[in-house]
Amino acid sequence: MKTIAAETSLAEVINTRPVLARELERLGLDYCCGGERTVADACATQGLDTAEVVATLSRVADDGDGARAQWATMGVTELVDHIETTHHRYLWAELPRLSALLDKIARVHGERHAELADVCHVYRELRADLEPHLDKEEQVLFPMIKLLAGAQPAPKFHAGSLVEPIAVLLAEHDRVGELLAQLRALTQGYEVPPDGCESYRACYERLAELETDTHLHVHKENDLLFPAVVRMDE
Known about the structure:
Blueprint: H1 10-16, H2 21-27, H3 39-46, H4 50-63, H5 76-109, H6 115-150, H7 163-186, H8 198-233
Helix pairs in contact: 5-6, 5-8, 6-7, 7-8
């Protein structure tokens, strides 16, 4: 197991220590769309002390599960199935439930907490981006990846290659990351106000879970699946 160091990439941190996802979220270190950056570079961007962050990450990793993430060694077909059953299934179920919960707390608490109107607006935009994105992957890209992985010789696609559709999806990932960052800022890191009810607390906890799950989801595609597919396609 590699030791976490200043020059370790954020993607490798997650691949070798998946337990650190929540800690990276807390520190504001973007390991999904910015997974190629080193810990030192990411800390510099956030104005954090690299040595302190490395020490914190190492301590949390030692206290948690030391197993390397299974997804880091999967082939592309297995990884596609894993992403779909783990992350897509979660999002299809959770997105509408969170919409209802956000609407509920906005009705009850919106007069005292004006920021909830912005939280609801950004969340609706996030959902409107995510659901068509999931559909494109499931109906178009993922079947093409499986065909590419299993065919000899390589199949010919109408689009010519998978590089261009992957580039579109990468741009959509960037936008999802921006919207998640907006939600974190609007909610002060999902901090429930003193007068927040249990529904308020549950909503913010589930938004935080959505953020962590989506960051892991994007990391697996950006840093593992898509680069592997591009190499196969070439």
